[in-house]
Amino acid sequence: MSTLRTYGSAYRVFTVVIAAWLTAVIVAGLVLEIPRLNILEETARNLYFHVPMWFTLMGGMFVSAYHSARVLGSGRLVHDVRAEQAALVAMAFGLLGLVTGMVWARFTWYVGTGKWWNFDPKQSMAAVLLLIYGAYFVLRSSIEEPKKRARIAAVYNLFAVVTVPFLLYILPRQTQSLHPGSEGNPAFSQTDLAPEMRIIFYPAVLGFLALFWWIYTQRVRTTVIERTLDGSLEPDRLPA
Amino acid sequence: MDWLAGAWAVFRKDLRLELRTRYALNALLLFVASSLLLVVFAVGQGNVTERVASALLWIVIVFAAAVGLGRAFVAEEERGTVLLLQLHLRGSMVYAGKLLFNVLLVGAMNALAALGFLVVLGLEVEAPGLLAAALGLGALGLAGATTLLSAIIARTANGGPLLAVLAFPMLVPLLLSVVRVTQRALLLGASAGPWAASVDDLVALGAYAGVVITASVLLFDYVWNDS
Hints:
The structure holds 2 protein chains of 2 kinds.
Chain A: H1 9-31, H2 47-74, H3 77-110, H4 121-141, H5 146-170, H6 195-230
Helix pairs in contact in A: 1-6, 2-3, 2-5, 2-6, 3-4, 3-6, 4-5
Chain B: H1 3-21, H2 23-43, H3 50-68, H4 71-79, H5 82-88, H6 91-121, H7 128-154, H8 162-186, H9 194-224
Helix pairs in contact in B: 1-6, 2-3, 2-6, 3-6, 3-8, 4-7, 6-7, 6-9, 7-8, 7-9, 8-9
């Protein structure tokens, strides 16, 4: 399989570092002191887990869109594998983000009411993005031939991902919502995040992005191997 | 072939074929009429608020489009005319002709669906011009989003039901704005003028149509050409 270069020991060391880093972040996030705010109280710890899910969903979206564009540009199928796996892992993280967000909103503001959904632009966008990727996988399963599948799926990926987040996220910046960063102000300005939370928050974002990268690279490698073995992905050049 | 002449030729071809068989038009009209009947029986005797009526109208329109617009490119495959079009015309001409045809089809359907809804649910229109603007811009956005998608599903094995799956997530931004505008056009005795309150949403609708059509034009060649 010469379509991917082999990862050396640096990769393995890095994965151990990621595992240790995230363990430290999770333990610190649950154990260390946080400032007490009305209504939020201990649930503010969810910040360390919910927001990084958003970052990974966005990161995965960009990676998937980039590799879809490369499929259209170069026609090499390995980019199709990368686009597909980035979409898959992004979907998983996005689902977690949606669920943690809904549970968080429920326990802070909606206990006693019947509400679960906030109609916030970011939340709507995450839900729509999940549906888009679901449709992407349904489309992929309806085309048999690998090159055609890669090309058509790439077109849909780019079409949906370039238009919808722009329209759902950038345009409705004027509405009120539970998220900081609505009503025209950018999210996480100086006053929004206390210093003792920042110490854990920034490492959490980095840790979860690294986790996304780790899972994504593993899935790409196993998928390339599977598909080379069953013949749907030809290696770029014959092994020596 | 000159670009405008080519696009116009595709449009006229589709129009002539459609007027000959009236397949898509009949399918859409019947779908709208049946859905109206279902809505009437589902809603029953009580009054619906303007918001709910607008929501029902646009849901019916979106489903009708998903059912009726899927055949735009599939018909070419079935008739074997794809190669003819690929040889004579550039991809952008084919797309433009099909888009124009779809805009007219959806526009006609929107007008009839809205008329049916107003009559059947007994609604009064506060701002008919605003309602027409909502229906027109909505038709533009809807046709813009679904034309490229129907080209995509023409390349799949049996992708008829797939248009709904592919299109609905992309139509969410359109739906958000257009239902609000329709609601304001129906609301009687609103405090601010309905046009003034709808400027943001109308701009959003125009932006939606512009964005999806631009993206479709850029991506169409990759779907149309086979390599």
